[in-house]
C-alpha cells in the first residue's frame, strides 16, 4: 500500500529530537502551550526556594521575549543582534545551572537525578546550536539555527519549570544560600563576558 505524506506523516519524521519535542513546542509567546499549565506559579513558591527559582524563571522569561522579538522583526541586523544577545544570556544561565543549581539538587531524589541527567543532555544540544550561531551570525543558517534553538530551549524551560522546579518544591530543598551564590556568579559572568 502506498503511503502518501499527509497530516500524520509529520509525526513520524525521522529527526528523533524534533519529533520527541514537537508536542511541547507549538505554543507561541502569549498563547498557552499544551504544557503551560504545568509551570510553577512564581508568586506561590515557598520562601526557601523563591529567590533561586524566581531568578531562573526571570532568565527564562527574558529569553522567551527575545525569541518572539527575533521572529517579529524582518531586519537582518536586528535578528543578528538579538541572536547574539540570547546566546550570551543562555550561556551565562546554563553555566550557573551547571556549576551551582544542578549540583545543589544532586542526590535529593532519584527522580530529580534523572531530570538533571536529561537537562544536561539538553544543555549540550543548546550549546552546539549556540556555537553554530556565534561562529557565523551573519550566515544563511542563522534563521534555522535560531529557530531550532528557540524551540529547543522553550521545551527545556517547560520541563525545568514544570517538572524539576515542582519536584524541588515538593522535596523542600533549601536554596537560600544557593540563590546568593547564583546571583554573585551571574554578576561575575556578565562582567567577564560583556
Ligand atoms: Fe533554566
Ligand atoms: Fe537548564
Q: Helix and strand layout, with pairings?
A:
Layout: H1 16-21, H2 47-72, H3 76-105, H4 110-135, H5 142-170, H6 176-193
Helix pairs in contact: 2-3, 2-5, 2-6, 3-4, 3-5, 3-6, 4-5
The chain binds fe (ii) ion (2 copies).
Biased composition (Basic residues): 1-10
Region (Disordered): 1-42
Domain Hemerythrin-like: 55-166
Outline of this structure?
By secondary structure, the protein is mostly helical. Helix content is 70%, strand content 0%.
Would you write up a description of this structure?
By secondary structure, the chain is mainly alpha-helical. The chain has six helices and no strands. The chain has one domain (about 45-194). It is about 70% helix and about 0% strand. It is elongated. About 25% of the residues are buried. The site of one fe (ii) ion has 5 residues, from α2 and α3. It comes from Cupriavidus phytorum. This is Hemerythrin HHE cation binding domain-containing protein. InterPro entries: Hemerythrin-like.
